[in-house]
Amino acid sequence: MIAPGTEPGLWQTARALASRDLRLVWRRRGDALQPVLFALLVVVLFALALGRDPQVLAANAVAVVWLAVLLAGQLALDSLFRSDAEDGSLEQWLLAPVPLSWLVLVRVLMHWLTTALPLIVISPLLAEMLHLPHDQLPMLLASLLLGTPLLSLIGGMVAALTVGIRRSGILVALLSLPLYVPVLVFGAGSVAAAARGQDPLGALLMLAAGLVVALVLAPLATAAAIRISLS
Amino acid sequence: MFGAENRPLDTPALLAARGLCFSRDEETVFGPLDFHVDAGEALLVQGDNGAGKTTLLRVLAGLLRPATGTVEIDGRAAGIAERAHFVAYLGHLPALKADLDTLENLHFLCGLHGRRARQMPGSALAVVGLAGYENTLVRHLSAGQKRRLALARMWLSPAPLWLMDEPYANLDLEGINLVNRMISAHLRGGGAALVTTHGAYAAPPVRTRALQLSLQGVVA
């Protein structure tokens, strides 16, 4: 028989995939800035459209920041699996001795780290541009930290379903935006509730519960969708 | 030619297909096929364009589900998950990232698939004639060099069965020799290979049988 080699475990494959993704992002760091610039531009456009009254801006700040982050993440969604599908990497993922759903989970988390986390980092700046009262900022950050991973996991399923379609930009948006509605409602709603002096904990717990469910189920659905897309 | 009767009866074939049939949109692409591959043996899958060679390899690898039939490994029916430990697949797509250099690509693929004992990405590059290109980005390689890098991935894989789809594509004469030498070495180590070609012009100098696919069905 052939000399026994080493079979990678879950952590080994995760580390290999994570370091590959970080290298790729670093090689194309210009592209990595695009979602951040996009979110900035959306906020500027809203600010221009809403006028110069700081009170009007502040009243809409949470909704605008949440929408800017959501739309920027939506635009980045297409890069989640597309290049790996086009160069055949996904085929090799399918043939790896670890579950495809595990690789998908690692990939989605890396994608979140490199596209959504920078948005959260600049969200205090976005909030400042819109005159958001400072006492609402921690709530905004908490809702984004819980909500954006959920958006990534939901979006990953849609990206996997459409990865076999050549030009799927608008289709991805049409399929994913309706699924984003509950996340937006509870995410932006939690900050709004806190601003009105109500208890925001319920909305945040709903987001957390959704995140836990999605962490378990979304990778399985995404892996199944990838298998369908590639066959 | 070596038929089934030459095989010792007590050892099951490395890989065997039983009544394997694949259809797309209710139209049969190939099959039903019955064949086996023993350790130390190469099976050449021949046929015209569109005869289903690539589809057969993808079914065996577990990328596609057959309509009917089973794939056995070491005499036991093996699902897609079991086959992942067992096959290395060289497809039309290189599975290389253009923005990583050759060594980084091999390190990632080894992290994903594991590594053969006593083989390292650096030495595999030398085996396929890419020594000196360790830090070259894949986007700067020629098509033939990318093919060689994909071959280095096969060389590093711990899987005993190589599924190679048109491994001679894009390669110069020396590259064709390289593929043949690699297959010979792999078979000497107890491995096996399924190789698709659309002609018999290139074949490894090893114990070889041929599986002829045609649009009408299986000939031999």
Q: What this model shows, in words?
A:
The complex is a heterodimer of chains A (231) and B (220). Chain A has helices at residues 10-27, 29-32, 34-50, 54-76, 82-86, 89-94, 100-129, 137-161, 169-195, 201-230. Chain A has 10 helices and no strands. In chain A, α4 runs antiparallel to α7, α8 packs antiparallel against α9 (169-195) and α8 (137-161) runs parallel beside α10 (201-230). Chain B is α/β, with parallel strands linked by helices and 220 residues long. In chain B, β1 (15-24) and β2 form a beta hairpin. Chain B starts with 14 loop residues before the first strand and ends in an 8-residue tail after the last strand. The interface between A and B is large, with 35 and 42 residues.
Features:
heterodimer; A: 231 residues; mainly alpha; 10 helices; B: 220 residues; alpha/beta; five-stranded parallel beta sheet; four-stranded antiparallel beta sheet; 29% helix; globular; disordered N terminus
| Chains forming the largest contact | A-B, 35 and 42 residues
Distance between the termini of chain A: 32 Å
Secondary-structure element order of chain B, N to C: EEEHEEHEHHHEHEE
Mean pLDDT of chain A: 92
How helix-rich are the residues of chain A, as a percent range? over 70%
The largest sheet of chain B has its strands arranged as: 6-7-8-3-9
Q: What is the β-strand count of chain B?
A: 9
Shape of chain A: elongated
Order of helices and strands of chain A: HHHHHHHHHH
Q: Number of DSSP helices of chain B? A: 6
What Rg of chain A, in angstroms, do the CA atoms define? 19 Å
The share of residues in extended strands of chain A comes to under 5%
Biggest sheet statistics of chain B:
5 strands, parallel
**Uncertain spans of chain A:** none
